[in-house]
Amino acid sequence: MPLPEDADRFVAGGGPDGGDPDAALAATTLPQDIQAALRRLPEDFRVAVVLCDVVGLQYDEIASDLGVPIGTVRSRIHRGRALLRKSLTP
Amino acid sequence: MNHADDLLSALLDGQLTPAEATEVRAHVDACAECAAELDEVRAARRAVRELPAVEVPATFLTELLAGDTVVPLGRRTARVPAVANIGAAVVAGLVILVFSSGSLGPAQLRPEVRGAVARHASTVSALLGSTGEHLAPETEVVPTTMPQRDASSLPAPYAAPARLAGYDLVDAYRSPGGVHVLYQRGDYGLSVFELPGSVDWGALPDDGSSMSLAGHRAWRWEASPVDGRLVVFEDDGMVVIVVGDEPGDAVLDVAAELPSARAVPMTARVRRAVARSLELLSPTG
User: What is the reported pLDDT for B284?
Assistant: First the structure.
């Protein structure tokens, strides 16, 4: 299993607008904004994102715990993150 | 390939095989849309992962499973970031529970057996009406009727079988420290109280008897003057109290069926409870 991507190395030169999207997000959001955005996610997405990014479980562990296929976990995490990002965008 | 979609998050999380990762990277290099999407999900991923750590309550598990407010007591770990004050405490506590050497074990409980019998009787009376003098508690006890919960919405550790040893599920309630699930068979009621922890066996009344129940240490008691029968046992980090008013061994029959109905590993139970708690404990709106 490869290590998680090194984000800084993988996207040389930053995002499509030429800036650093992470820094831009950090500059415009507060922890409570992120918490609120998480709470607004549909439950299935929120659970998957939290188990992955907060609890730190692997996809197969999440799939086992939730009793869903690993492809479903992957989809929920991705869609959850995409919704979060939209929700956090000013 | 078509657009990478959820392979992008899997790439960030290191969940692809080397061959898959190479293919996705090549696609992203050639697809501006996927490159932009990758930036978006990376930003969201980092935002969640970098939420500040919070202090963890020593009693997190009890409070988590009870759905009560958590009061942070002291820092136990800096590993886990916050989601919300409550949820984060729960999550950080989860890590300790699963991976620690046991220094933060479940709370040891002294089951209030008389109170459990009285609460059972009071709840049955309040819900079903008076179905017999044997159900009337000697003292006034507030029934566990509020807040009422749909049994199907209980957190994973409390998943309640619809039928147990001939008893049908009637309702489920939160009760102090855990849940109270009510069953009925004819005129007889039966309550299952579940709460996280372990039993302080020495604190139980002297007039009960120890026994083994489906491989679990258990303790049986017949209440007086209220006509109730009760059994207490431990099951994988949970304390279960079964109270019934039917003569005979109904409480034992029900208790014997409960463990097999809840054969979910403790770690999985806690993880699912954590996930569920984010909804249960987070303020709405």
Answer: 43
